[in-house]
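FW: tagging you since you asked about this chain on Friday. Here's the raw sequence from the shared folder, copied in full. Didn't touch anything.
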Amino acid sequence: MIWITAIIGLIILLLLGIPIPFVFLGIVIYLVFTLGYDPSFLLPYGFSKLNNIVLLAIPLFVLAGGVMSVGGIGEKIVNFAEIFIGKIKSGMGYVTILACAIFGAMSGSAAAALTSIGKIMMPRLLEKGYSKGFASSLIANASVLGLLIPPSSIMILYAWVGNQSVLRAFLSTVGPGILLMIFLGIINFFYMRNNKNVLVKESFSEEDLTFSVKLKKNGLIAVPALLMPVLILGSIYSGIATPTEAAALAVFYAIPVGIWVYKSLKIKSLGTIFLEAATTTGVIMVMLYAIMLFSRIIIMENIPNTIMDILLSISENKFVILLLINLFLIFLGMIMDDVSAVLLATPLLLPIVVGIGIDPIHFAAIIGVNLGMGLLTPPTAPLLYLGGRVGNVQIKYMLNPTLIMLIFAWIPTLLITTYFPAFALFLPNLLLGAK
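HL: got it, structure written out here
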């Protein structure tokens, strides 16, 4: 009865819009006093869990994302992608998807990709005849590639909580990320194929006549921006740097590029960027502390085994249990942000999936796709609302195209990721060796 009350209270408080750190702190206080745990035992545990160098990567990637958003790096990536696919009908949609994927490989943040690429691409999409609703929805959906294409902040958290390899967790979501790009591209093609408002450039200036001219104009200037994901991922997978060190490298690289190469970043604006990054980091740290206390209570109360017994009483079929777990994760994503959801779901569900023979790295990909989809699924849907603000459009005009993308892009990606383990495990096993 205590846990039923706690869960109902948790859902109600989240739906009322109470900040998530306060929600979990409130639930922890309730459970501590009703279950009779000693606070002097739990409180030091939360601090000890936060004492981990891996977590330093999160504020550093937040800071790198902020610097890149202001520093003109996103614009150069967009211009580079436009060289290859920007002139064909619906090509600007493909540019959006590709630019979000590349930006995600540098920032590890969906919100940063949405804000940076969205501000650049929205006027270009509208100029080509895209509707505001579809353009905003496409940008919002593509921005989640920032969580699936490594490095990914939620994969860092998953690896930290689940005691898994960060590099393997990174690589597990590459396949699903590429598959999502393909599905979004197909939807963009069919959605815009019969749209007579989409403009295709029929007359070309002398500058546009040859590929080499376009490559010279926008390709060379994009080299410093394109070197950034190579620098970050190359240093991680070559073993030169840890994810935390690579995040610091991203910050130190992005600042001089933004100031002296692209001249979009002003030194005086760094203070604002640092302040925003510090504020975001503070919120994340409080949330980490609260959920670590909550997850500790869950483990001490043997909740994962209880849930597993309930699932096995419904069915002993592994595929049915995976379906039920996916439904739970979809619901979790609908009411929580990605960071909170991965911190709650990992200690709760990881013992269950391991118990039925699922590889923890395979489960990392399942969580990544589920929580990425949750960022676009009402009632919370933070990226959907942020996409509406970036595109200056009411949410009701985004709902129809978003629903199409959820049904024909996200759900197929989730099903393939869930029921074909090799799709998530191929790259980790290929590059890092089979476990």
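FW: The radius of gyration is 22 Å.
HL: agreed, and The chain has one domain: 55-432.
FW: great, closing this out.
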